[in-house]
């Protein structure tokens, strides 16, 4: 991805509907927005945004590879059948199932990538190391994509959030961006903003 470095720090100001539901701060709130699920933890001190892959656990490519492996096995070409199965297994383990970002007030941010194989990779960034959270634009597969990134003090490389799944700017990415900034850069919980949500059915 080639970043164009178009910072959009205040895209969401005034973009939220003016709705203020009276929701108890002690209860966990969950809502969904397209492929993203948001959890507002009790006390409004933390938020987690989870973006899930639109791909199914088993797709046409999986069926194709296994069909080849079965054909090779029936043809007694066991070495090639095993090779096809291993290629499928390796590719599946590296396929992203979901990505998430968890922000905790006065503590920091954790970004996590979970793969279909069950493994996961996560990184925690201490609040004192977070310089800013921004939205940039970059080129990916000849398309201009918007992405959220964390600027870390004393580091040249940004930490890209939802790096593999790259959800749409509106409404998914903007909602996560605004929610993370509320937690990280607001000293006290803003109940008026935190109370806007759609309950999960």
TrEMBL record:
Pathway note: Glycolipid biosynthesis; glycosylphosphatidylinositol-anchor biosynthesis
InterPro entries: PIG-H (IPR044215), PIGH-H_dom (IPR019328)
Alphabetical GO biological process terms: GPI anchor biosynthetic process
Domain Phosphatidylinositol N-acetylglucosaminyltransferase subunit H conserved positions: 100-163
UniProt superkingdom: Eukaryota
GO cellular component: glycosylphosphatidylinositol-N-acetylglucosaminyltransferase (GPI-GnT) complex
Pfam families xref list: PIG-H
Similarity remark: Belongs to the PIGH family.
Descriptive protein name: Phosphatidylinositol N-acetylglucosaminyltransferase subunit H conserved domain-containing protein
């Amino acid at each position: 991805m080639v970043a164009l470095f178009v910072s959009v720090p205040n895209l969401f100001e005034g973009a939220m509907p003016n709705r203020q539901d009276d929701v108890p701060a002690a209860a966990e709130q969950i809502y969904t927005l397209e492929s993203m699920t948001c959890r507002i933890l009790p006390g409004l001190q933390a938020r987690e945004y989870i973006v899930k892959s639109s791909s199914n656990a088993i797709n046409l490519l999986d069926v194709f590879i296994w069909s080849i492996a079965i054909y090779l096995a029936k043809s007694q070409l066991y070495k090639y059948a095993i090779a096809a199965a291993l290629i499928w297994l390796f590719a599946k383990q590296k396929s992203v199932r979901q990505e998430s970002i968890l922000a905790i007030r006065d503590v920091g941010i954790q970004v996590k990538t979970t793969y279909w194989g069950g493994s996961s990779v996560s990184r925690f960034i201490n609040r004192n190391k977070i310089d800013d959270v921004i939205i940039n634009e970059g080129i990916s597969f000849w398309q201009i994509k918007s992405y959220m990134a964390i600027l870390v003090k004393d580091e040249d490389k940004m930490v890209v959030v939802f790096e593999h799944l790259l959800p749409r700017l509106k409404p998914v990415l903007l909602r996560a961006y605004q929610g993370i900034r509320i937690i990280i850069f607001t000293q006290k919980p803003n109940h008026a903003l935190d109370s806007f949500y759609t309950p999960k059915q």
